[in-house]
Amino acid sequence: MANQILYLEDLKVGDVFISETYELNANKIKAFAREFDPQDFHSDENLAEHTFFKGLAASGWHTAAVTMRLLTESLPFAHGVIGAGGEIKWPRPTRPNDVLYVKSTIKEIKPSKSKPNQALLFVESKTFNQHNEVCQQLVAKLLSFQKN
Amino acid sequence: MANQILYLEDLKVGDVFISETYELNANKIKAFAREFDPQDFHSDENLAEHTFFKGLAASGWHTAAVTMRLLTESLPFAHGVIGAGGEIKWPRPTRPNDVLYVKSTIKEIKPSKSKPNQALLFVESKTFNQHNEVCQQLVAKLLSFQKN
């Protein structure tokens, strides 16, 4: 099914999608931080030692952005991966040289009341590091469209 | 208070923080999309016309990242803006040349059970465009630390 485009009628609760991997490094963490989250613990290895994170850590929003990258490649939903919002948690920091992958599970399918050819998918996406620890847990509300 | 560092004892429910502004443009939207959310509606003006968004729109995670940038400049919390997670909604897309700002309100202060010198702040951050329409609504759980 890897490259097959999936419409609403192709999906069911419990379906699982596993992404490829993405390797972070200190330069990527610092580049993202300079642009979007310029705080010592995300932007400078030495200063980061003396912070809450006790060492360089990726911005949570960087972990979220990398997760989205992995989702665009692993959720072959018709018309794209379109989110209305969601709930996000960062149980532990993402670190330089972490290798991330995402496991997504459809938890609920809620038909639209106003648009009979659409539904909202509640998709749980857990972002794991190379030690199989969860760095991010996202439950996103994604749009799904019928083919017919 | 603009540059004063705020500890837990300085904060109360109802406190409001207004950010500076940040101007998006098509090049920034496409650069973010190429790296993190390579879908037609975020990466190509022409292809975007024929999608759900009917024109180029920023990735929601780009709006979130810009919001974080504005929060780092507008929430002068001691030890930084450190989030454990939150709830996020994108009621409308962010578009090229939108000028964004963020209004943050402390909604709840929840003392930590295990760490008496810490609390979790529930901070609602609404990201507005230049028409005062909400592009993103985030309720983040942020760490706050006592000074004494």
Overview of the structural elements:
With 148 residues, chain A is α+β, with helices and mostly antiparallel strands. The first copy, chain A, has one domain: Thiol Ester Dehydrase, Chain A (Roll), CATH 3.10.129.10. In chain A, 23% of the residues lie in helices and 34% in strands. Chain A has 4 helices and 5 strands; from the N terminus they run βααααββββ. The first copy, chain A, has helices spanning 26-36, 40-43, 45-48, 60-74, and strands at residues 16-23, 83-89, 99-111, 118-128, 134-145. A 5-stranded antiparallel β-sheet of chain A has the order 1-3-4-5-2, with helices on one face. In chain A, a hairpin with a 5-residue loop joins β4 (118-128) and β5 (134-145). Chain A is elongated, with a radius of gyration of 17 Å. The mean pLDDT of chain A is 96. Chain A binds chain B through residues 32, 35-41, 51-52, 59-62, 64-66, 68-69, 72, 79-90, 137, 143, and chain B through 32, 35-41, 51-52, 59-62, 64-66, 68-69, 72, 79-90, 137, 143. β2 of chain A pairs antiparallel with β2 of chain B.
Keywords:
homodimer, 148 residues, alpha+beta, Thiol Ester Dehydrase, Chain A
| Overall geometric form of chain A | elongated
Structural class of chain A: alpha+beta
Q: Could you spell the SSE succession of chain A in H and E letters?
A: EHHHHEEEE
- Strand coverage percent of chain A: 25-35%
Describe the largest sheet of chain A: 5 strands, antiparallel
Average pLDDT score of chain A: 96
CATH fold name of chain A, please? Thiol Ester Dehydrase, Chain A
CATH-defined architecture of chain A: Roll
Widest sheet, order of strands of chain A:
1-3-4-5-2
Largest interface: A-B, 34 and 34 residues
